[in-house]
Write the structure tokens for this entry.
Amino acid sequence: MSTAKAANTENRVMTGADILVKSLVDHGVDVLFAYPGGASMPLHQALTRFGDSIRTILPRHEQGGAFAAQGYARATGRVGVVMATSGPGATNLVTAIADAKLDSIPMLCITAQVPTKAIGSDAFQETPMAEICRGITKHHYLVTHIRDLPRVMKEAFHIASSGRPGPVLIDMPKDVQLSDTTNVDLDPPMQLPGYESAPPAVPSETIRQIGAAIKLARRPVIYAGGGIILGNASEELREFISKTGIPTVTTIMGIGAVSPDDDNSMDWLGMHGAAYANYAVRDCDLLIALGVRFDDRVTGKVEAFAKDAKIIHVDIDGSELNKNKEAHIPVRGDVKQVLTELNKMVSRTDIDPWREHCRELKKKYPFQYDQDFDGILQQHAIKTLSDITADMDAQITVGVGQHQMWAAQFYKFRRPRTWHSSSGLGTMGFGLPAAMGVQAALPNSLVIDIDGDGSFQMNIQELATCFCEELPVKVFLLNNQHLGMVVQWEDRFMDRNRAHTYLGPIRHSEAAGASQAERFAYASERYPDFVQIAKGYGCGAATVKKKGDLEGAIREMIEHPGPYLLDVEVPYQEHVLPMIPGGMTVDDMILK
């Protein structure tokens, strides 16, 4: 046996649980989110033997643990790891797995399973996880023999992190965890026939074709998505923008890839994106789509999206090309490689009239809100938070709803991997646990969850994790007592008829029926008392209602040494604008 091979072989007796944990260590896992149960106890015991270098964080719900693993992955680009027991513990991961699949987040989900002989017998706490997750994972394994485990672990990390990233499931029967063996080869060859971990290099002729199209264009727009951030290509994109001077829009997933301070930045587009970004794409003659998937929340009526433009589409996943929108130059490739090659040949484009047109669009259709209102509007709260934290090492997570859209509009994200949003699936309850994962990955960063009361309550129990695991996450709670985004749709399209969107007691007039509320209305009674709840969990907490008190309250939140919740009282009739109704076009955009 070679020396190298000997170094990768364990001669002592090891159980399956030992091998799995040792594999985590060998793959550089330093943080694990895990909730124990009967079928996964051997794994947790192995963590005490082989996992000294791994920080095991106990969430208060398995979904919270999986979203925390996502937060870790989104902030670092590394594989986030979560572990749960069989049955309900495993199924509690499903939403977060689906979320990771849609947003292409590298995640390893380890679930315990009933013993192999009991599989299929409807045993206590048995669920067929491989079958359940077949459509929402990049790959999945059911390990039936200890000898396969080192290879499975190696393949799982490789698949999760290579190419277009995504979640991988490993289902581990209890008897495989408990079985033992010696002479374990911890670095066996992988068996992945047909799997391409990276696309082939894009030919130079294709690069020249893209360059020629850019030279000919008179109204080009760069449309950059999450693939830029996932592919660590933000610097190459910024160089490309600097060299060409082409106006640039991003998707929600692409926020942070381009600094909003860049003269060529047109911010983000889509249903609630900047009007000027949407108009620029409508009017362009060349759309350079980089690491995007032409999602319906971006395109609206897809056949009308950039209808007069030639489209270049670069994506690492060939299945995305021509899936939603046909491209004139479809390119399967690594966007970082494509941009690196383009940067060697491009120069400033001769499009001054177009640049001036885009500047005028930004001036004419800015993000705005009523700055004279004497209470705290959500937009004002977020802008104030952004201004205060501008020079801090801040990381922002969000829940899902109006506050998510306003955070994307009014918080200035100048660096990639500082904005963490459930984008494709739109999962309420994402913000707080994702913030835990970011904080665990980046202990010296200021991590703030901008949340709404509806979304926050879906994983409120993770305040306990923040306190017990010493994760000083800050919750900036924009509390309007309603499911604000659904209220907005009721107001705009359903004659203001309230249908289960008020989050307080049913006896109040806000609970049901036609609404007569004014624009800046507040709920007549605030429920629940989030400050008491947060303090009950051991966190710092305060409420703020007056506009003049907001800045001081934010600074107190930031300076608090542990986890902290700032309950910001805001009205519930405010709408996120602009807005393109679902399936409609830019020309149907609602501006006020």
Observations:
- Confidence is low (pLDDT under 50) at residues 1-6.
